[in-house]
Amino acid sequence: MKKLISLTILFFIAVSVNAQSEAETLEWLRTKQQTIRDVSSDVISRRTGKLTIDESAIKVSNAEFSTIILWSKVKDVTESLNDITIVSNDLVDGKNAFIRLNIEGGISAKYLKALRHMATLKGAKMVKDDLF
Q1: Residue 90's domain spans which residues?
Q2: Is 7 part of a structural domain of the chain?
Q3: What is the residue-level pLDDT of the chain in tens, covering all 132 positions?
Q4: What is the number of H-type helices and E-type strands within the chain?
Q5: Helices assigned H by DSSP within the chain
Q6: Angle CA(23)–CA(14)–CA(6) in degrees, nearest 5?
Q7: d(Cα 108, Cα 110) in Å, to the nearest integer?
């Protein structure tokens, strides 16, 4: 019995050591931010927005407007072609607020995974892909 408990503890330690921390994920997202070609949101058109990623939220802003999605309010992160869309639980004019990133194709799958991971670490309850 002691061996079983010891093995279980060692397994959980190994899994937690390999998991990427919040700080590491944030640093990776910021480092790879240069691969993002264009950003837009529900209120900001392409080519006019500036992206900011920090420990509490992801934000797109220009001189007039901004869209801020708290990590804990992320509802879903999806990909289509080279666009990654981060959808919020918050509504704007009856529709979910969103931020869309146009990213280089080679890294978009990893960036999507990192965005999902960061949101999950911050407590987001996202839609499960395997629901149906």
Answers
A1: 20-121
A2: no
A3: 777 787 777 666 655 555 688 899 999 999 999 999 999 999 888 888 899 999 999 999 998 999 999 999 999 999 988 899 999 998 888 899 999 999 987 888 999 999 999 999 999 888 766 555
A4: 3, 7
A5: 2-18, 22-31, 108-121
A6: 140
A7: 5
Per the DSSP assignment, residues forming a β-bridge with 70 are 57
Does any domain span residue 116? yes
Token representation of residue 49:
């927005």
Q: Whose structure tokens read 């500036």? A: 50
Residue type, 125: K
Which single residue is written with the structure tokens 């209120």? Answer: 43
Q: Look at residues 86, 71, 77 and name the one whose alpha carbon lies nearest to residue 123.
A: 71
**How many independent structural domains does the chain possess?**
1
**For the whole model, what pTM was predicted?**
0.80
